[in-house]
Amino acid sequence: MSTVVKSPPKKKRFSRDMFERLTWVDLVLGALRIFIIVAVIVGSYNTITSDKYTVSQWVSLVMAGLAQGSIYSLIALGYTLVYGILLMINFAHGEVFMSGAFTAYFVASWTNHNGMLERMPVVSILLWMAVAALVSMGVAILLERVAYRPLRGAPRLVPLITAIGASFFLQYTFRGLYGSGFKSYPEVPMLKGTVSIGQFNIPLVQIVVIASALVLMLALYWLVERSKMGKAMRAVSEDKEVSKLMGIDIDKVIVFTFAIGGLLAGAAGVINGLYRPQGVNFFMGFFPGIKAFTAAVLGGIGSVPGAMLGGLFLGIIESVGPNLVLDGLGIPAANQLKDVIAFTMLVLVLIFRPQGIMGEKLKEEKA
Amino acid sequence: MNQSETLHWRSLVNAGLLAGVVVVYTGLIGMIEVFSARGIITGVISLAELLILAPPLIAGFVIARRTLKTSGVGRTVFNSIVVGLISSLLPILLIFIITFFDVRTNVNIRNMFVNASTDLVDLLTFGLGVGVGSLALMGAFAFMGILGGVMMLLPIRIRGAVMAGLAWTLSIGMLGDLVNQILRNLFGKAAGKAVFTKGALDPAPALVIFVVAALLTYLWSGQRDNVRARYNSMGSGGKTATQRIGGGLLAIFLLMLPWILGTYLSEVLSNIGLYVLMALGLNIAVGLAGLLDLGYVTNFAVGAYTMGVLTSTGPLGRLGLNFWMVLPIAVLAAMFTGFVLALPVLRMRGDYLAIATLGFGEIIRILALSDWLSPLIGGAQGVLFIPKPSIGGFVFDTPQSIYYIILFASFLMLFISLRLNNSRTGRKWMAMREDEDAAGAMGIDTTVAKLLAFTLSAASGGLAGAIFASKLGTIFPHSFSLLISINVLSIIIVGGMGSIPGVIVGAVVLIGMPELLREFSEFRLLLYGALLITMMLVRPEGLWPSAVRRRELAHDEAAAAAVGD
After folding, report:
1. CA of A95, closest CA in chain B: separation in Å?
2. d(CA A252, CA B457)
3. How close B236 comes to chain A (CA, Å)?
4. Which end of chain A is flanked by fewer CB atoms within 10 Å, N or C?
5. Is A164 within 8 Å of B294 when comparing Cβ atoms?
6. B148 and B258 share one domain
C-alpha cells in the first residue's frame, strides 16, 4: 500500500508551506466555497427578514424534514455498513429498499381488504414490515452472492459497475413482476390526526415515523456495539486479514452485513409507505437510494452514528432549504429544486469534506 | 472429480434448477408472453419458444462438458437427460400454481404477479392443456438437455458448423423485419414474400440458410489458418492494399446503407450513430482516463439546448442562427461545461467521482425542468421549432440525409479518438487510469490530464446533443435523463473499455437491437443491467477487444509496416 502525501497537509492552518502548495484548482474550489456560503447567508437573511413564514411553518418544515430524514437514515445505514466492510458503494441498495416496499404493498392492500388493518392496525403494520424486511433481506443477500462476492478484490470500478447493472436489473425485474403502474399504500386511520406539543401541531404520522426509525436505529446500534456479530463486523471492517486469523468467518460477516442493511431498508420501505403512501413503483428506490448515500457520506461513510445523523441532517436541509435559501434568492417555485439541494449537498460534501461530519480522516485507500 | 457421487448429483440438480429458475423468471417478468408475438421460423419456433427451450439446452451442454471430462459417452447422455428433466420441475410447478389459483380460489394472483396468466400457462404447455402439456414440457426439456449433450459430443468442427448454422438461421429469423426490408429494397417485393411470412422465416428458406451457413463455416474452419497464413505472408504493400480495399468497401457500404435500409431503419441508424458519437466521447473519459463519468448526459443536454435556444424560430429562440453556425458554439459550450464540472471533481477518485457526476447529471435535468430557468430554456415545455440543418437550398429533413451528417460527425470523432489513442496524451491518460499516484510521480500533471479528458469527452457529447436537437426539432428535459448516461456507459462496457471498435460494435448491438426487435425494447434496461453484471463477472475487459486484440497481434507487423510507409 502506497501512502502518498497529497497536497496541502492540514497540520498548521496558515503556514508558508500551505501558500506555496496552493494551486489554481484550490483557488477555484475556495471561490466556489465562498460563493456558496455567501449565497446561503444572503438567501437565509432575505427570507428571515422578509417574515414570509411563521414560526409554526418552520417547525412543521423541520418536522417533515426529520421524518423524511429518518427514512434516509435507515437506508443510509445499509450503505454505510457495507462500505465500512467492503469499501464499496452498493449502488443497488435503493433497489433493495424498493423491493421490500413494493412487495409489502401487496400485503398491505390484502390486510386492508380483509379488514385486518382496521381490527389490528399495529399487528398489520408489523406484518407489512416483516414481509418487506424479509424480501429486502433476501434481495440483498442474493445481490451479494451473485453480483459482489465473485468480484471481491477486483479493481474498485468493477463492483461499482456491477452495482449499477444490478440496480437496473432489479428495477426492471420488479417492473416485470409487479407491473409498471403506480400504487399506494392503504391509509391507516390510526395514524391520522395531529399531536399538539406546546403551541405546535405535529402530524401523528411524523412522530410515529421518527419513533419507529429511532427504535430500529437503536437496535442496530446495540447490535453493532454490543453483540458478538457486531464485534465481528467491526473487526472485519478494521482489518480483514487479521480478523480472518482471529477465526472470524469473513463470508458470514459480509452476508450478515448485507442482510442487516436489507432488513433496515425493507423496514424503511414500509415506514416510507406510512409517511407517504403514494408513489409505490419500481423506480421508487432510485432517488431515496442516492439521497441516502448522500446522507451516509454526509455523516461520514462507514460510521453508523454518522449515517443516522447524516440522514436527519439531509432531511432537514432538503425540507427547509428551498424555502430558506432559494426563496430568499428570489428563485420562483423553489420547491421544485428540492432535489437539486440534495444533489448539490452530495457534490459539495464529496468535494469539501469527503470524510463527512462524523468521520475521521480517511486513509488514502478508503478515500 | 470422482470424489463422491453426491457432489455429482448436486451439480446436476443445481444446473437443472438454475435453468428452471431462468424459465420461471422470464415467464413471470412477462418476457415469454411478449416474445410469443415474434415468430422466428413460421410454424416451427417462435422467440418465446426459443426463450423457454434455451435454458435446458444450455444446461445439458454445460453438464455434458463437465461430465465428459471424467466419464464416458453413455454417462454424459444420461446426465444431460437428467438435467433436462430437472430443469422442467420448476416451470411445471409454476404451471400448477397458476392453474390452481385460476381454478380453485378467488384470489387473483395477477393482482400481484401481473404476468402469471393462463396465457403464460398456454405458452409453457405448448397449448396442450395442463396435464398433457406438463408432460410435453418435461419431454421437450429432456430432449433439449440431450440435444445439448449431443452437441458437446460432436467433433469440434462439426459442432462449430452446426452452431453457426443455428445462429445465422435464428438471427435472420429474429431480425426478419430488417432482412425483409433489405430484400424488398434490393430485389423488390416478391423477394421478401418468398422468404418471410409476417416477419418470420418460412421453413424451407430457413433450412437453406442453415445448410449454407453450416457448410460455409465448416469449409472456412478448414481454410482459416491457410488464409491467415497467406495474408501474413503477403508483403507489407499487399497488406496495406488489402486493408485499403477493405476500408474503401466499408466506406461505400456505410454511404449506401440508408438507401438499402429505407426510412425507418435509417432513423434507427441515426440513433445508433448518435450513440456511437457519445460513446466515443465517453470512452475518452472512462475507457482511456479511467474516470467513471455517470453524468455524461449533461454534455448531451448542453449541446442540445445550445442548439435549441440559438436556432429556434419559436418564442424561445434567441438569435435565430443556422445549424452550421451553432454547431461549433454548441460543442464549445459543452466543452466549457465539461471543464467547469470537472474542476470540483478533480480530487475525487473512482466511486465518489461516479456518484458526484451522477449528481451533476440530475441537477442539470432538474434545472432544465424547473420554472426558474423556464424563461430561458422552456422548462417542462422544452424548446420547440428547431429548424433542420440546410445547405443552400438543400434541407436535411429526411432520416437518410441526417444520417450523413451523423456519419460524418462519427467519422470525425473516430479519427480524433484513434489519433488520441496513440498520442502522448492518450498514453498519459492510460497511465493515469492504471495508477494515478504512479502517473503523478512520473511527472504527469494529472490535473491537466483529467481536465483535458473531461473537456474532450464533453465535446463529443455536445456534438451529439446539437445534432439530436436539430434532428428532432423539439427538445424536452425528459430526453435528458440518467438513462442516456447509463446507455452510453453500457455501450462502452459491453464493447470493451478503451477499445474503439468495441465501442462501435457495442452501440450497434445495444442501441440497434432494441430498435429492431421492438419486443426487446420493453426489457432493454433489464438486459443492459444483466449484461453489465455478466460482463463484469465474466469478462471485465469487454467482449470485443479480446478478439480485436488477437487480430491486432496477428496484424501487428503489418500495422507497424503501414505506419513505416
Report:
1. 13
2. 43
3. 40
4. N
5. yes
6. no
> Which chain B residues in 440-499 lie under 8 Å from chain A, judged by CB atoms?
440-441, 447, 486, 489-490, 493
Which residue of chain A comes nearest to B347, CA vs CA?
A: A351
Integer Cα distance of A292 and A213 in angstroms? 14
- Alpha-helical regions (H) of B435-475: 436-441, 446-472
In a domain? residue B528: yes
**CATH number, residue B422:** 1.10.3470
C-alpha A244/C-alpha B403 separation (Å) is 59
Name the domain count of chain B: 2
The number of folded domains in chain A is: 1
Give the predicted TM-score (pTM) of the model.
0.86
- Cβ of A337 within 8 Å of Cβ of B346? The answer is no
**Which residues in chain B touch residue A331, judged by CB atoms under 8 angstroms apart?**
372
- Across chain A, what does the average pLDDT equal? 82
Q: Please give the grid coordinates belonging to residue B415.
A: 479519427
Does pLDDT of A20 surpass 60? yes
Contacts of residue A25 in chain B, CB cutoff 8 Å? Answer: 343, 346-347, 447
Q: What is the DSSP pairing of strand B200-201 with strand A200-203? A: unpaired
Closest Cβ–Cβ partner in A165, A177, A347 for B344: A347
Kindly report the CATH number assigned to the domain that includes residue A232: 1.10.3470
B443 domain residue, yes or no: yes
Collapse the DSSP code of B390 into the 3-class scheme (helix H, G, I; strand E, B; otherwise coil) and give the result: strand
Residue A284: name the closest of A264, A303, A268 by CA.
A268
Residue B390 sits at φ, ψ, to 5 deg, of -150, 150
Convert the pLDDT of each residue in A264-323 to its tens digit. Answer: 999 999 988 888 888 888 888 888 888 888 888 888 887 888 888 888 988 988 888 877
The residues pairing with B390 across neighbouring beta strands, listed in sequence order, are B395
Q: How close does chain B come to A346, measured CA to CA in Å?
A: 7
Domain ranges, residue B386 = 252-564
Q: Of the residues B123, B153, B183, which one is the last residue of a structural domain? A: B153
Helix (H, G, I), strand (E, B) or coil at B160: helix
Give the integer Cα–Cα distance in Å for A360 and A19: 25
**Does residue B266 fall inside a structural domain?**
yes
Q: Is B258 found in the same domain as B149? A: no
Q: Is residue A282 part of a domain?
A: yes
Within a domain: residue A362? Answer: no
- Residues in B closer than 8 angstroms to A337, CB to CB, are 366-367, 370, 372
Q: Which of B110, B125, B153 is the last residue of a domain?
A: B153
Which domain range does residue A197 map to? 27-46+53-352
Q: Determine the Cα–Cα distance for residues A199 and B16; give it in Å rounded to an integer.
A: 66
Short-list A157, A169, A145, A158, CA closest to A92: A169
What letter does residue A56 receive in the DSSP assignment? Answer: H
pLDDT in tens, B409-440: 888 888 888 888 878 888 888 888 878 888 88
As a whole number of Å, the CA-based R_g of chain A is: 22
| pLDDT average, residue stretch B218-223 | 80
CB-nearest to A25 from B30, B346, B354 is: B346
Contact between residue B201 and residue B172 where contact means Cβ atoms under 8 Å apart: yes
Helix (H) or strand (E) holding A201: strand A200-203
Q: What is the pLDDT of residue B325?
A: 83
Going by C-alpha positions, the residue among B477, B366, B302, B307 that lies closest to residue A331 is B366
DSSP result, A157-216: HHHHHHHHHHHHHHHHHHHHHH-SS-B-PPP-GGG-SEEEETTEEEEHHHHHHHHHHHHH
* Residue B166 forms part of a structural domain: no
Whether residue A8 is contained in a domain is answered as no
Neighbouring-strand partners of residue A60: none
Torsion angle defined by CA atoms of residues B513, B518, B522 and B525, in that order, rounded to the nearest 10 degrees: 10
Q: What is the largest CA-CA distance in chain A?
A: 74
Name the pairing type of β-strands B196-197 and B45-46: unpaired
Give a yes or no: residue A132 inside a domain.
yes
Rounded Cα distance, B59 and B20, in Å: 10
